[in-house]
Amino acid sequence: MSKVENRGLSAPKPGALARLLLNWFKQNARDLPWRRTRDPYAIWISEVMLQQTQVKTVIPYWQRWMRRLPDVRALARARPDAVLKRWEGLGYYLRARNLQKAARTIVDRHGGRFPERFDEWVALPGIGRYTAGAICSIAFNQPTPVLDGNVIRVLTRVFGIAENPRRRETNAGLWRLAQDLVRAAARRQRPGERNCSYFNQSLMELGAVICTPRQPKCPLCPVRKHCVAGREKRTDEIPNLAPQPASTARRFAAFVVERKGCFLVRRRPASVVNSQLWEFPNVELDGSRTKGWQLAENLFRSRPFAIKPLQQVRHTITRYRITMDVYRVEFANGTAPRLENGCWRSWFELRKLAFPSAHRKILQMLETRPTYQVGSFRRTTPTT
């Protein structure tokens, strides 16, 4: 029998764990802006932003988002490009597109009223079991479980669960354990209290600030006396996650082309990573030693008059390490190069478009280096 099911005498009882964590959270919870409201919209946005992203990164994004898109109707009627621009830099852009799809569903099918039932939330685009549980517990104080990376780490260590938590059977057992715990917190609730909300947040908080992946702060943990992994000196072994795949290096060449104060860009197709975002013309290198002017000629189907390296951009996303060599390209007599799906955008228009992080760095370079700015872009003499 899995240790998730057979927790034994050494593991804490759900009620005792709930009491300890609720008391700790009330005294130690970080003052995060989305914790100052019970608005399900604000909580929903924060939970989606926090997926795969650190709190310190999310805070300014969430604040800007709430100023520009303060409620579900504003999100539903916003231009998709404006939504992506608000998300620019957070990555995993499907999250932003699903937010707007879900907002439109809430407005169209629910009259703008937020559903309160778990099954209604998971029926919305982009809402999984964790997000639905977080919204229902935090916004509506319902005893719905949550299980993200932080919570998995806390539960596997406290209860000494040595199996890989990503295994189907073990993961299902962890969900049942999380359900037992939040229900135990609900049973301790007195009138006016929000135990379900605070307990689930306490699990997340403990994993974020105390029970960290490396060098956990065990002496500060409110449940250290009950923690199996801490008692057995196994916090380095638990959770027992499979090793991450090795990162892969990828190399690109990108080209900045200006004509009459406009720059050549294109939109990424719907079927690829970072779909619908904008980018400067680029090609992925295959390991050959092809020169920059040859790459430009192949891409634009026209031999450049001049080409000059501008900078090298480095960026890491998921398991890829990206290196992008950026060139400034000019064509003879102001000839407009041909580029599939390419279009010309002014400097003012560029700043309104959403770019993937690597290409946003190119835009920032053009903005911050006077030699390359629009209007003075041609002051540097190109080399052939």
Overview in brief:
By secondary structure, this protein is α+β, with helices and mostly antiparallel strands.
Notes on the protein architecture:
The structure is a single chain. With 384 residues, this protein is an alpha+beta fold. It folds into 2 domains: 14-231, Hypothetical protein, domain 2 (Endonuclease III, domain 1); 248-379, Nucleoside Triphosphate Pyrophosphohydrolase, CATH 3.90.79. It has helices at 14-28, 40-50, 55-68, 72-77, 80-87, 94-110, 118-122, 129-140, 149-158, 168-187, 195-209, 228-231, 292-300, 347-350, 357-368; strands at residues 248-259, 262-267, 278-279, 282-284, 306-317, 320-330, 342-346. Strands 1, 2, 3, 4, 5, 6 and 7 form a 7-stranded mixed sheet that branches.
Task: Explain the layout of strands and helices.
Layout: H1 14-28, H2 40-50, H3 55-68, H4 72-77, H5 80-87, H6 94-110, H7 118-122, H8 129-140, H9 149-158, H10 168-187, H11 195-209, H12 228-231, E1 248-259, E2 262-267, E3 278-279, E4 282-284, H13 292-300, E5 306-317, E6 320-330, E7 342-346, H14 347-350, H15 357-368
Parallel strand pairs: 1-6
Antiparallel strand pairs: 1-2, 1-4, 2-3, 2-7, 5-6
Helix pairs in contact: 1-10, 1-11, 2-3, 2-8, 8-11, 9-11, 10-11
